Amino acid sequence: MQVTAQMVKELREATGAAVLDCKNALVEHDGDMEKATEYLRQKGLAAAAKKADRVASEGLIETYTHPGGRVGVMVEVNCETDFVASTPQFEKFTHDLTLHVAFHAPKYVKVEDIPGEVADAKRAEFRAEALREGKPEAIVDKIIEGRMNKWYAESVLLMQPWIRDETGGQTVQDVAVGLIAELKENIVVSRFARFELGQADGAAEEV
Predict the structure, then answer these.
(1) How far is CA 160 from the centre of its chain?
(2) 20, 148, 162, 206: which is deepest, by most CB within 10 A?
(3) How far apart are CA 202 and CA 207, in angstroms?
């Protein structure tokens, strides 16, 4: 199958991968968009894993105030060099992340940040809920895991659907991994704070 420029453009928009990587992925998978997307996702995960131990002490602190001044956000995103911190891709990701936090109001950066007692309480809540619904004991644990994953997608920044992806197919983590693959540096969403007028429980989460 012939790979067109439009196909490459669509795959780049969906994955955030470099143009050449998108073209090669499509060629390798005979134009199959789904297979090419999964291939790039796995490649990005592998690239991110290799860079995860690198020190990321540069980066940006970005702020956003919603029109009307009722919601304010501050995020810190780190990378390895000031050169990458000044690239348009990194700056856009950091800016868009403030909009994401303002809109989606996460509570934690990553799953590991959730206090054990909070996670245990949620599991107990979902177990009681499933039993009240008459679910068979044999499948209750599976139901709990499904509901925990849904809760993670609502509460954990890196697991939330990315605000710029209208299809809902990409999480914040997916976008960050794609940026790592593109910019060739470790990139870490370190912390955020979100303030809403009249509320005293603004989040300030750290990795």
Answers:
(1) 6
(2) 162
(3) 17
